[in-house]
Amino acid sequence: MFHVDTLLAVLIAYLFGSISSAIVICKLMGLPDPRNEGSGNPGATNVLRIGGKKAAIITLFGDVIKGVIPVLAAKWYGLDTFGLSLVAFAAFLGHLYPVFFRFEGGKGVATAFGCLIALNWQVGLMLSGTWLVIAILFRYSSLAALTTSILAPIYMWYFTNTNYAVMTCVMSLLLIYRHRKNIRNLVTGKESKIGAKKT
Fold it and tell me: Alpha-carbon distance 56 to 49, whole Å?
């Protein structure tokens, strides 16, 4: 049975995750709605395509921090590893299916990273290194995200505990599902590279 404080923390994390950095930043900077431009995904990579580096960096930071803050707050409050796993997953789910934006969210890579690095900094370093190596070698953001998603549960299992590892497995499956169009594009050679305009 869940404690009331755990349920409240999960709800707050979901609402926090539901704040779409891409949509908010684009609106504040006078850019088009990312859901209607480029790839149609409200995330940092698409904001880079339609609004440039500055808007993309701010969006990326916003997406990461909304994964970090709920988890660190829950850690400070003293939730156990099961409760922390639920909080992390709730923040991630909020990004994917935000209640404030008709449940039309992004793919969750940056927010997932924020959640996981807040749970364990060593895992965060491994994820960062994996993403950077693949992105630099192949220049596909989606390929880097997919590779990192597949390896994330292994990293989490090695460095932490079963609760975190199981949650990360579910998170990774959702990340892969959200990238299903990118997978098709990678296979057919139609995927846009980092820094390239959407054709």
Answer: 8
Q: How far apart are CA 168 and CA 119, in angstroms?
A: 11
Q: Is 40 left (phi over 0), alpha (psi -120 to 50) or beta?
A: left
Locate tokens 């789910």: which residue? 93
Residues 6 or more apart in contact with residue 52 via CB below 8 angstroms? none
Distance CA 149, CA 152 (A): 5
pTM: 0.92
What single letter denotes the amino acid at residue 71?
Answer: V
User: Rounded CA gap, 36 and 55, in Å?
Assistant: 16
136-192 residue pLDDT tens:
999 998 999 999 999 999 999 999 999 999 999 999 999 999 999 999 999 999 888
Distance CA 128, CA 138 (A): 15
How many Cα atoms sit within 13 Å of 6 on the Cβ side? Answer: 12
Model pLDDT for residues 21-69, shown as the tens digit of each residue: 999 999 999 999 998 888 788 988 889 888 889 999 999 999 999 999 9
Q: State the CB neighbour count (10 A cutoff) for residue 25.
A: 25
Cβ neighbours around 8 below 10 Å, total:
12
Burial class (CB in 10 A: 0-12, 13-18, 19+), 139: middle
